[in-house]
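Researcher: Please translate sequence to structure tokens.
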Amino acid sequence: MILEYARSILGKRIGQLTMLVFAACLAGGTVLASSDELGGESSYGGERKGEAASQGTALILLKLKEGKERCALIPWIYRYDCLAQGFTEASQAKVRYRELEPAQEILAMAGQKMAAVVERHVDPAQPPSRIGNRTYKAIKQSARAEANAEAQAVLDETESLLLRSYGPPKMAAHYERIAMAVSSSDVLLRSALEPLPGLHNPAIEAIRRFAGLALSFGRVYG
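Model: Translation complete:
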């Protein structure tokens, strides 16, 4: 009699436990469904993705900033190749965030197009400028205006592509910041159009170029 009573009580307990587990599973399914309805990711996951996007954008902006700072230190004839390399380096930054990949592809294309400007106007008589582990080609002084116009067109196209290719709305602000950083590179092109004293005196110009390179090297490594 006692044994049968114990079995009866145990059976009721197991039944209650089964119902509790079933209810918990239903509740879990409701939570998952709610997460899916909200976009397929929890708020915590969204915060982590947002942080990754911000860090990736900051790294690209840092590479662009470092490139512009280097280009500002060297004579204008080398700046076009310097800008080309700066865009390429920014495109290769280890971002590891999928939704920033289109931005880096656009920057890689900008680097290629700026390098093409250099190749069209390269000055074979001018020795490359070596600063640290980077080497920059010079363009012909006679091609200054033409190269400047072509380089500006590259900047304008790159900015436009970035503003149109941001993907999800949440990435718009990130792409806008990168586009602004690219557009601000035009200050280097404007300064490249400034008159050069002694332009028609090859000896004086050679001295000025040598002095400029020496000063640039001192600023970077002094």
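Researcher: Any highlights?
Model: Residues 2-37 form the longest helix (36 residues).
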